[in-house]
Design goal:
The protein has 14 helices and nine strands. It is α/β, with parallel strands linked by helices and about 325 residues long. The chain folds into two domains: about 190 residues, Rossmann fold, CATH 3.40.50; about 70 residues, no CATH class. Strands 1-4-7-9-8 form a five-stranded mixed beta sheet. Helix 10 packs across helix 13. The longest helix is centred in the middle third of the chain and has 18 residues. The chain is globular and about 55 Å long.
Length: about 325
């Protein structure tokens, strides 16, 4: 339910992006006849039983675009991610880094764009009740470990935000009616953050925070003094990899853009670290204004923002 609302929070596609997305959908055979030009970020949510060819691309003869390309410049949502094939999930590691996928077949080779915002959702254990308040989990500890290990470490290292979602009580659900922000309100805030990032990157080849290489982030746009102390400590303790540090920096820049600050402060980096590692760092817990009704179980939600920023796509 939350993932379906992400495309509405993202800015409209630029003319160049619209042509790219339209071309992909035309080749994939998913372009609606009544919509010759795609102008909004696409949303793709394949079933967890999707094959390698369906998700990455391929097929007999000339390769065809998969879900990672159909979601180009948009959102790719994989529910029940722990039920997906491990090989299929790990195949997304390369396009998450490069922004494209190359599929080779006997009859030819095709390079397809694949720059998307990845959202994963999974139960915490096979029975779905591990960690829930007031409910006993029926799974053995070894079963929980095996279930969570289905999402490999290298793939999870490419996930920027990791959120544990608890089921809402009836009173909490009723209290949300009339108090949640509208999609238009949040989208306006996201657009302002995106414009702030674009202005900062105006004289560079990049337009969003996520496109900026880690080296450039650390050298051309240094953070406030002492802002990286906790991140460096996490690296020393093995909680953060070099790739993870770059992704934390990008999230911190997005948090600062959303707040209207010129550069991230230590609090922005702590916020990015907390959302990545799940370790509380003194950041006030944000209220979930988007609801989340319909879940009768604890859910693990992870997002890899490969183009469209963080916490609503300000990237």
């Amino acid at each position: 339910m939350l993932a379906e609302r992400l495309p509405g929070l993202l800015p409209a596609l630029t003319a160049k992006e619209s042509l790219e997305v339209t071309a992909v959908h035309s080749v994939a055979g998913t372009l609606p006849q009544e919509q010759p030009l795609v102008t909004r970020p696409p949303y793709c949510a394949p079933h967890h039983s999707a094959t390698m060819a369906a998700l990455i691309g391929g097929g007999t003869g000339l390769p065809r675009p998969g879900a990672v390309s159909v979601a180009h410049h948009g959102v790719l949502f994989l529910d029940e991610a722990a039920e997906c094939s491990g090989k299929v999930m790990d195949a997304m590691r390369q396009p998450l880094e490069s922004g494209h996928v190359v599929v080779a077949r006997a009859n030819g080779m095709m390079r397809m764009p694949a720059r998307f915002l990845l959202v994963l959702a999974a139960n915490p254990c096979p029975c779905g009740r591990h960690g829930m308040r007031g409910v006993d989990c029926e799974c053995r500890p070894s079963s929980v470990r095996r279930y969570r290990a289905r999402l490999s470490g290298p793939l999870m290292d490419r996930i920027d935000l990791r959120v544990t979602v608890q089921p809402l009580a009836r009173s909490e659900l009723a209290a949300l009616y009339g108090s949640a922000e509208s999609t238009a309100t949040v989208a306006a805030r996201v657009l302002a953050a995106r414009e702030r990032a674009a202005a900062r990157l105006a004289d560079t080849p990049w337009t969003t925070n996520n496109e900026v290489p880690g080296h450039a982030l650390r050298t051309r746009w240094p953070l406030a003094s002492g802002a990286l102390v906790q991140a460096e400590e996490d690296m020393d303790r093995g909680l953060l990899t070099a790739r993870g540090l770059d992704r934390v920096l990008r999230v911190a820049w997005t948090v600062a853009d959303l707040a209207g600050r010129d550069r991230p402060a230590a609090a922005d980096v702590r916020c990015a670290l907390e959302m990545r590692t799940g370790i509380r760092r003194g950041i006030p817990e944000a209220r979930n204004d988007q609801g989340g009704s319909g879940h009768d179980r604890s859910r693990y939600v992870g997002s890899s923002f490969q183009r469209d920023g963080h916490q609503g796509g300000a990237g």
